[in-house]
Amino acid sequence: MTTVQDLLTAAIRSIGVVAAEETPSTSELTDALYAANDILSSWSPQILPVLPLTRELFGLTGVAQYSFGPGGTWNSARPVKIEAIAIISSNGARQPVRPATIEEYVMRPDTIATGLFAEVWYCDGGFPMMNVFLQPIPTGGNAEVASYKPLTQFGLLGDPLSLAPGYANALRWALAIEMAPEFGRPVSQEMMTRAVDSKMSITGLNQAILGRPNTVEPAAVPPPVPAQQAG
After folding, report:
1. Model confidence at 222: pLDDT above 50
2. Which whole number is the average pLDDT over 82-99?
3. Domain 4-49+151-209 in this protein, CATH class
4. Which residue among 108, 139, 174, 211 has the highest number of C-beta atoms inside a 10 angstrom radius?
């Protein structure tokens, strides 16, 4: 079983802090864990290419506003971005709902109108709970919500590593580049190339799954940082 510690150890070994047969210290692994979670946090707002699309069904109760997040009316992880919403009526009919800007939403004349389906939805982007508004107000049925959820943070070093194909390799090299300056190690061109290529591989896969053109350009690879000269 591959663990979080195995991934962190591979990243630390990639920058030459420990040899292949050695184990990083507890403090080195702890630093790597914090850095890995920072990378996951920074990747999540990028949406594409790194986040998969999640589809969920939430019951509608005849109100105009639904809180979306842990403990909310729509009790699920708060998404980074809502991609699409459709209303499914109690008899199974389905109709997509068009996203609206705040300017369009507040200009709607009848805020208490009801109907079988909503015409528009608006999200306020609130944190830690966002709110989704539907107009007209559906009287029942379900909301089918497609959204991008943030990448799950790592917990304990001994936790099983659960990542989709390609993510572990991309995270390993991103983490190596993130940690190299902290340990006084150079960032080689090979490391940068591996980090770019491995992240672009999951970019291409996710965009192919979603049926979108690949608009991500390869990142410029800077020249390697020379090691510090002994004084």
Report:
1. no
2. 95
3. mainly alpha
4. 174
